[in-house]
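Q: What would this chain look like folded?
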Amino acid sequence: MQNNKNRWFSLFVLVLLPFMSTLDANIINVALPTLSKDLNIAMADVEWVVTIYLIVISSTIIIFGRIGDLKSKVLVFKGGLFLFTLGSLLCGLSHSLWFLIFSRMVQALGAACAMATNQGIITQLFPQNERGRALGISGMAVALGTMTGAPLGGLIISITSWHAIFLVNVPVGIFAFILAMRILPKEKIQHGGKFDVKGAILYFTSIALLLVTLNISQQISNTPLIVLGLVIAIALIITFILVERKTEHPLLDVNIFKNTLFSLSIFCSFLTFMAISSLNIIHPFYLQDILLLSAGATGIFMMIFPIVSSAASPVSGHMSDKIGSEILTFIGLCVVAFGLFGFSFLGQTSSLLLIGIFVVIVALGNSLFQSPNTSLVMSTVPRDKLGVAGSTNALFRNLGMTIGILTSTSILYNRMSVKLGHKVFGYIPGEQSAFMYGMHWAYGTAALICLFAAVLTGIRLRNNKKAKRDNL
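A: My prediction, written as structure tokens:
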């Protein structure tokens, strides 16, 4: 498949669904208040429209990656396009919370199919000297989806109903599906190995239970129930790993984690998304509640990050093709850590220029890290495990975002509670100093997490250089 003459046209198709899924994720965030009023439901209930999407993707993505390796990654990707488009149509036709949640689950299944296979297909299509650039363009598509989601969502809702934010995906999805059927190369259907049903059930149950428990932990005060859910989820994850080690054709070949480069790259990706997610969840509150920016101005200001990322990701990928990925991942992590440390020193009267500079620093560092790191991950596994490698990378990315949001908000609320002397679970009007105190702790912790990832990468880089010198 690697020497396909239409590989750049194929890349266009392969990045359309990641673009659509990130666009949709940001559009729905803007629409939550409108959904809450229109469906006459509490804000805590309507948040499940967002969280169920992430839960379904995370708990099925490895399964679809394995199916892609066993059968055909291209067929799974095409199926993902169909399901995502169908789910978008069902979301647009929804008139109740439960049907909307069901429709979001269909959407998420389609997104999981695509996320599990598109990196593997790109890796097979492009030779080593073009792979970083191709993966960088894939990262740019995600950044563009993030960038256009909020303003497009606001525009659509101001003109028509919230249903249209989902229906906008339908014509794009149909167009992408037709292109995929015509342009994507034929892939030889594999028949080696069997599908691990037992492993799939254990994986789905453990990840779904873990994420559901983490999500409800901030909404209920029943600590024993939360602890029980976490204990069962962790026990199921351990059981899954033990079963996979003894299974002849496992859902997830745990032996791929024996490759130090693969494991460390995956772990650093997890840590980075965990750290940066603090910016996504806390920054809007800082801009609106502390600096008193309007929602519209906040949305425009929040576009700085994806604009920089969309411009820098292809350049980063191209650089990794020329000078190698490992040094870029190290530099990128250091830059992100520096930017997050900068956020931990912001005040109630900090200028937008200074804040914007720190946003640009974090975005540049993230772009320097992500595309080269993905290239490292995908280069460490054989062709028949590209689907599992890509889906594992996407899984740890989603887990990093979920756990990062939970961690940063928990630190924020805990430090605010200490400052105020009583328990709080959100911003308290008139208590700006308490919010700033919690924000400084949250960003400082995020910076340390990213710095830890940089140290791990630096040690690996030093050891690899030493090994090369010894072999001369």
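The chain has a mean pLDDT of 82.
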